[in-house]
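Hello,

Our lab assistant flagged a job as stuck in the queue for most of the afternoon. It eventually completed. Since we weren't sure the result was trustworthy after the delay, we are filing this so someone can double-check. Below is the sequence as submitted and the structure that was eventually returned. Let us know if re-running is recommended.
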Amino acid sequence: MATAAPPEVPPRTKRCLALDAYRGFIMLILASEGFGFSELQGDPKWGRIAHWFQHVPWEGGVFWDMIQPAFMFMVGVAMPFALARRRELGATERDNFRHVLVRSLHLVILSQIIIWVGAGRIQPQLINVLSQIAFTYLLSYLIMQWRWRYQVVAMVALLAGWTALLFVFPGPDGPFSKQNHIGLVIDRAIFHYDYDPAYSTLNFIASTVWTLSGVWVGRLLMTSKAQRSILQKLAGGMILSFAIAFALHPWIPFIKQLCTASFILYSLGWVLFMLIGFYLVIELMGYRKWASPLVVVGMNSIFIYFVSEVLFRWLDRAVGVFTFHYNFIGKLAPVAQATTVLAVMWYMCYWLYKRAIYFKL
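-- returned structure --
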């Protein structure tokens, strides 16, 4: 008796190991709370390294200032892979649009929970990185439906539009005001809350460029182009980002808190530089095994972000019961303690990874 053939299972969209490793690296750095170096800022020996793990007060940018851009960029890189997989499983464009809307809403809700728990009270605001991602994720999805040249126009319009707002509505000390720029004025009117540092909800206008650039890179990584060709295009994007950033710098300073156009492009250059490193070593040179600990975290980025934001202090106290906060080793005690807490969070991700449990929104 003939039997019906089993339904054909669509081929799974190929994952990019370099992408998972890069995401894991960024999430580990983000969850590390600066590896405890904040307590060594004034130390003559370790102070220079400690400086890399603290945001600059206003102008400029160090390694720690590149973590949020990389986080938001990685969201964009993952989008073409995730949406393609959903289409393989039968999702229509309408389904994908609904999925993006719901996920954006979930990101906003989760961001508020994290903020309220941290503040100990209900305090609505939309400057948290997850809230910002909710906006940039939705905008990038809408823009990525357009033809390439219109996407480029959209990127330019986002940067130019945000810059124009800063110049048209300057604070008392100019367009790049630390106390009364247009974003703060609007947030103060809506939420009756002063932000310090001076981030604002409207930062998503310019920071969408990080996520949208990630979408373009994700599409590039999904192509059948030779790996060397992909690497060359990534390098070209990095060089172009740096070149435009420094060309704008005399008139528009690098200010992360304002998401100035020059900082967006400057940080994008560094984000691409880091991705190039991972892609070169893992995909082109074929050194893959070393990345496994990073992939463990990259596969559960939402989980480790939530744990680090909500439970880091509790874990620090709990772990400290057994480590005595490493007070017996001297100056580097905060670094050893933060690294141990990070190792505990990594093991939590590993436990989930081994059981194929992944937290998604």
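-- support follow-up --
The delay was a queue issue, not a problem with the job. The result is valid. Residues 175 and 318 are 46 Å apart (CA to CA). Residues 1-12 have pLDDT under 50 and may be disordered.
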